[in-house]
Amino acid sequence: MPTIPWPQPAVITERAARALARLRRGRILHPAGRSFAGEVLVWGTSGPPTGVRLLDRPGNYSATVRLSKGTPTPDAWPDVLGLAVRIHRQAGRPFDLLVSSSAAAPVLRHLPLPRRRFTGTYSSVMSYRTGRRRLWLAALADPESPDLGSDLPGLSAAVAANRPGMVLAVASAAGPWRPFGQVTIGDQLGAREDAALAFDPVGNVPEELRLAGPLAWLRQHTYRGSRRGRGVSAQSGGSTGLTV
After folding, report:
1. Model-level pTM?
2. Does 6 have pLDDT greater than 80?
């Protein structure tokens, strides 16, 4: 009796994500959000270098920033909030940093935590590997920056009035956050630009980094399927890397 070939897990995952994106006619994760032009100023890590040039060396980069709700809950309800920062580089792919609302403490930084307000700690939750070391990245609330509000209209108003910013930081599994730069949020992009914008947190990373852990595989294929279901085939925001 002939053996029936079963699809590989990667194929199943991508097909499911593609079908869901088509059904929703948009992103399957963080569907509601606002996108903005931005700027990232890197002043370099304090203490021992990470081995990642983008984090260790001072630089100034244009950026695209998106803040979003993880699920379409009503405004001001608790949700896992998301922050995506695309750092545009002159050579090679951009760096797509995707972080979720979390706590700052070493144990809780590995867990996405729902909250009401956009101001707060956002952690990569998953670790990055550089050589044999593991790093976590975060965007932390800047005490000198205005509050970002608790709903999307309030977020747009806060950004338009104040040009807020957040502090970018890196940490080991149990070490303290070490600030290395700042992201400033600028002019809001239109709804069509927001809908077309897509990020690749697995492929669009600096050469010295790679996303670590079993969830990296799931994230890669889920995002790829989502991209195909949305009909996104080219990197938006002036870059040429793959998108999701």
Report:
1. 0.82
2. no
